[in-house]
Structures are given as structure tokens and as C-alpha cells.
Amino acid sequence: MDFLTVSIAMSIGTAVAWLVALYTTRGSSLLFWNTFFGMAGAFLCLWAAAEMTPALRLIVLVIAGPVCAAVAIYLGNAIRQAIGKAIRARRSR
Known about the structure:
This protein is mostly helical and 93 residues long. The protein has one domain. The chain is built from 3 helices and no strands. The chain has helices at 3-23, 31-52, 57-91.
């Protein structure tokens, strides 16, 4: 993977995180986590595209990258909230 492809993946993950921040009620307070999970999802999509179709990885990244980033943001926040609830429940005992 070259630097251009990696920067495109970072841009896609960050753009999806900013869109989530703009159109949700708690998006701005979760912007750091959304950016982290969005970039992780875009990188995961980039890695999968580079492994499956090296010649078409940019096309797959541009088409499927935002979807992977949005799913990663959703799942990452759900896991983070579940861990937080478990920690709070353990502390209240």
C-alpha cells in the first residue's frame, strides 16, 4: 500500500466521523472515538480490498470504505458503551 491509498482511507474514515458528528445529537462529544473507529474501519476495508483485489483496491475503498467506517463507528461505540456499563456496574457493588 502506498501513502496515497493510506491517506485516502484516513480521509474517508475522518469524513464519515464528521458526518456522524454533524447529524447526531451526541456526535460532537464522541468525535474522538468516532474518528478512531471510522479510520479503523476504513483501514480494515483497505486491507481487505488489497488482499482480495489488489488491482481494484481504490475502487473498492471508495465504494465500500464509507460503509465499513460507519459500521465500525456503530460497533465500536456499542462495545465501548457495554464496557463502560460493565465497569460502572462492578464499581457500584
